[in-house]
Amino acid sequence: MKLKKFLLGVLCAQLFVHSAEDFKKSEIITFNDRKLDSLPEKLAQCERLEELIVNNKGWELQNFSILSELGFLTRLDLDYCGLGVVPAGIAELPNLRALSLKGHNLRGQEESWNNLTGLPLVKLDLSVSHRLKKLPVVIGSFVNLQALKLKGCNGILDDSENRHVLGRLTSLINLNLSSTKLQRLPDELKKLAHLEKLNIRCNHELEIHEFDWQSLASLKKLIINYSSIEKLPSNFNTGLQQIIYNGNEFTDQELEVVMQRSPALVKIAKVINFKK
Asked: Is 245:238 a contact under the CB 8 Å cutoff?
């Protein structure tokens, strides 16, 4: 039986020699808390590698040269790797559809973001990038991007240029703006006609009552828990299936108004489910 996935943690060295043939046929490889200085050259031996997942726990990863030999990658996670620039090797991954660059000091204005130009990205995760003040302009060119996570990117939508970039992502289905110190929902959200899931939890000064929720005609799931929202809107679209609102205290009357939008709605704990 051929191994398709290798978890390379504290037993990394042992796994590399466990079965050279199985390693070559690996489709998914995960480095978890390895404190790597560089991506191992042995990765070039993997003939079918599609997903490479690295969480370096803040240890600076400096050498990415092997990326140019991993042309079959469809997913690349380089999380908490101490990045100061976007690695040039990413530009040589023509099949890359999912990219995660969580927990870095990237500011969004580095020229190295141009290394992403032309990639067929569908998912992009820039969460916990506390210094990210500018959404890289190149992101607006990802016409097929369906999921964008900006969790913990404080004040990221305070900038009008950032909001403009967001408004260009008209294929988005899933948007995570949790813990971004968001105070109001930008009008640019109305351009996201295909948006099905919106996560705006843990924004403690957020006001959502005045937003035109009817403009998000495809919205199915709204996550607003722990956002200190004082009033629940009543103008949600009729297709909304679920609202998660733990940590917010709404009146029974407010909940009843929302629940009336679907006779099949079921309230479970502090989750409202609109059944199909």
From this structure: no
Q: Pick from 133, 84, 131: which is nearest to 111 by CA?
A: 84
CA nearest 198: which of 222, 220, 214?
222
Q: State the Cα–Cα distance between residues 56 and 61, nearest whole angstrom.
A: 7
Per-residue pLDDT band for 11 (boundaries 50, 70, 90) equals very low
> Max CA-CA distance within the chain?
64
Whose CA is closest to 98, among 57, 145, 135?
145
Q: Using DSSP, state whether 12 is helix, strand or coil.
A: helix
Q: Which residues of 232-260 are buried (b: 16+ CB within 10 A; e: fewer)?
A: bbeebeeebbbbbbeebebeeeebebbbe
Distance between CA 138 and CA 108 in Å, rounded? Answer: 10
pLDDT bracket for residue 274 (50, 70, 90): low
How does pLDDT run across 101-130, given as a tens digit for each residue?
Answer: 999 988 888 889 999 999 999 999 999 998
Tens digit of pLDDT for each residue in 224-247?
A: 988 888 788 878 887 888 888 877
The rounded distance, in Å, linking the Cα atoms of 8 and 32 is 6
Can you tell me the distance from the alpha carbon of 250 to that of 259, in angstroms, rounded to the nearest whole number?
13
In angstroms, what is the C-alpha Rg of the chain? Answer: 21
For residues 181 and 158, what is the distance between their CA atoms, to the nearest angstrom? 9
Amino acid at 227: S
What is the 8-class DSSP label of residue 234?
S
For 65, what's the count of Cα atoms within 13 Å in the CB-facing half-sphere? 5
- CA distance linking residue 203 with residue 175, whole number of Å: 14
Mean pLDDT for 265-274 is 51
